[in-house]
Write a structure and sequence with these properties.
Elements (H helix, E strand, L loop, with lengths): L1 E6 L6 H6 L6 E7 L21 E2 L3 H8 L3 E4 L3 H13 L3 E4 L7 H13 L4 E3 L7 H11 L6 E10 L12 H4 L2 H17 L3 E9 L13 E8 L4 E7 L10 E9 L3 E5 L2 E5 L4 E3 L9 H11 L9 H17 L5 E2 L7
Parallel strand pairs: 1-2, 1-4, 2-3, 4-5, 5-6, 7-10
Antiparallel strand pairs: 7-11, 8-9, 8-15, 9-10, 11-12, 12-13, 13-14
Helix pairs in contact: 3-4, 5-7, 7-9
């Protein structure tokens, strides 16, 4: 039985809460908010769903007392890397909100702590478990499109009216590239097995800045790939409220022998003979349950040991390029590749 603890109740923390009743392999033993962004009573709406788990005001005390096997870290973005590093120091495996760190220095320190303490870290990059993206990954891996040489990807969100105040401070928010478009950075990292060679990026704020001054709502990245190809990712926080979904995720991968596209929940393969919608293997799996099975039963986890670090590094360097008006930044010399 895996002993689970929650650090923070922000972001996608609800994923584990909703998943615990679906598994006999994990039990919640403790929870703690992360001030100053979270009030002490932030977990009160969840108390009737958390059984006899013990609440703490300090997550460090919780780690000492409860000695959890798995910690879900979902605080304000700038706090997640430090909390995850502390969890690793206490010997806990970690599921951490993305980005797993908001600076390259903290990312490096987190990796050192994970390695030194022999624990496993994964991230809230659950798009990998979407049936449509999984079908595209399989088609590419099976050689259905030949060598992938060109990628176009999109991530579009509604900004809404309830974003936390820290979104308005870059030092705390970390930027929209590491928060929004990291999903497509990670999907390309997964599809093409770490293909990134360099990046030039741009970002800007238009509507979001009226509520949160330092939050970008337009992002664009151009990557050169190690095989000589290219990938573009655009992202926005401008999806209108009249849209029929909160997000709109798309990807198109062009290969030397075909094309695979994911759009509107469908995966389409185009080759010399046909254009077909690929069959999707429906699944109610999620990143928490997938990780629990990995830890408890040794099943493969959807994210490799270094992949969350690499996707985060690429996102942070793309943000750096955007901050420098599109300066080209090399991505080949990576400790996480």
């Amino acid at each position: 039985m895996i002993r689970v603890a929650f650090i923070g109740r922000s972001g996608h923390a609800y994923v584990a809460l909703r998943s615990l009743p679906r598994t006999e392999d994990a039990k919640l033993v403790g929870y703690a908010p992360v001030p100053p962004e979270e009030p002490e009573d932030i977990f009160d709406p969840w108390k009737d769903k958390m059984g006899d788990a013990r609440g703490y005001s300090d997550y460090r005390e919780m780690l000492e007392e409860e000695k959890p096997d798995l910690v879900q870290v979902s605080a304000a973005f700038y706090q997640n890397g430090e909390a995850a590093r502390e969890a690793a120091r206490h010997g806990a495996n970690i599921l951490v909100e993305k980005p797993i760190a908001t600076t390259l220095g903290l990312l490096s320190e987190l990796k050192e702590s994970v390695d030194a303490n022999g624990v496993r870290l994964t991230a809230m990059l659950g798009t990998r478990l979407s049936p449509s993206f999984a079908a595209a990954k399989k088609a590419i891996g099976d050689g259905a499109i030949g060598e992938p040489v060109l990628v176009y990807a999109q991530k579009s969100y509604r900004f809404g009216t309830t974003r936390p105040e820290y979104y308005g401070e870059r030092a705390k928010f970390g930027g929209s590239i590491p928060w929004v478009t990291i999903h497509m950075i990670d999907i390309i990292n997964w599809f093409l097995e770490d293909p990134f060679a360099s990046v030039s990026a741009r970002h800007a704020s238009f509507e979001a800045c009226k509520q949160r001054p330092e939050c970008e709502d337009v992002m664009a990245m151009l990557f050169s790939l190690k095989n000589g190809g290219a990938a573009t990712i655009n992202g926005d926080y401008l999806r209108p409220s009249g849209a029929d979904s909160h997000g709109d995720d798309r990807i198109r991968v062009v290969g030397t022998q075909g094309i695979v596209e994911v759009m509107f929940g469908k995966t389409t393969l185009i080759d010399e003979e046909k254009q077909v919608d690929l069959p999707l293997e429906e699944s109610d799996d999620n990143i928490f349950l997938n990780f629990v099975r990995h830890l408890e039963h040794g099943e493969p986890h959807i994210i490799g040991p270094n992949e969350a670090f690499r996707s985060t590094e690429v996102a942070l360097k793309a943000r750096e390029s955007a901050d420098r008006d599109g300066e080209l930044i090399d991505l080949t010399d990576s400790p996480y590749s």
